[in-house]
Recover the amino acids of this structure.
């Protein structure tokens, strides 16, 4: 299957700082990318959907000014957690697919463990 | 976004036993996917079901898609400790939305 690379895999930051997470599709063009958040022993919660060149669509309850998503190219999307606080500590996962239609397989990154101290 | 209900939430069984995980919705799925996730990693796709009544087999895993395309099940035969993980169903429409997940623990 296709490869999606997420970086960094782990990051520790101080409260009040911002952290950027990158998601790259290595061997295909990602028309659509998804960003998820996952708490321990829980499922993936969809935060936002982004299409290349357009603004991300955020799920209800997700602060778009706090979680900045940029999908500037067909191979790269970034999630920036701004002014991070300890409650933002979580596992963040991106996913990408090469078609905007339903039923197309999505490929997942390895995830980023964010710890805010 | 379709609401996906997954049950049970937790399942702990002995090696060699069988188990079934269910995924239900009040809406009709265009397609549904099952994933398995291990701690600290991203989910890995197991199967995609598209046609109502479809049955797919992947070694000891059997996936069924309901005739009305509103529900699906995952059955594991003779579970092994390597089957331990978080099993997730997902509705693969414009958004890829997940059910709550089932944590499966297979004891040796």
């Amino acid at each position: 299957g296709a490869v999606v690379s997420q970086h960094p895999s782990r990051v520790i930051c101080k409260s009040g700082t911002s952290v950027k997470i990158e998601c790259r599709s290595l061997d295909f063009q990602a028309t659509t990318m998804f960003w998820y958040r996952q708490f321990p022993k829980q499922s993936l919660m969809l935060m936002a959907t982004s299409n290349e060149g357009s603004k991300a669509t955020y799920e209800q309850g997700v602060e778009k000014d706090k979680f900045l998503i940029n999908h500037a190219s067909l191979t790269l999307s970034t999630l920036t957690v701004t002014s991070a606080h300890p409650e933002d500590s979580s596992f963040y996962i991106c996913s990408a697919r090469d078609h905007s239609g339903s039923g197309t397989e999505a490929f997942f990154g390895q995830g980023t463990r964010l710890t805010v101290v | 976004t379709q609401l996906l209900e997954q049950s049970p939430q937790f399942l702990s069984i002995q090696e060699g036993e069988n188990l079934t995980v269910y995924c239900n919705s009040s809406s009709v799925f265009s397609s549904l996917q099952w994933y398995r996730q291990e701690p600290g990693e991203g989910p890995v796709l197991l199967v995609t079901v598209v046609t109502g009544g479809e049955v797919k087999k992947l070694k000891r895993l059997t996936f069924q898609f309901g005739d009305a395309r509103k529900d699906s099940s995952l059955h594991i035969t003779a579970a092994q400790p390597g089957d331990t993980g978080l099993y997730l169903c997902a509705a693969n429409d414009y958004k890829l939305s997940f059910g709550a997940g089932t944590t499966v623990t297979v004891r040796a």
About this structure: Chain B touches chain A through 26 residues (CB under 8 Å). Residues 90 and 97 of chain B are 5 Å apart (CA to CA). The mean pLDDT of chain B is 93. Chain B is about 0% helix and 55% strand.
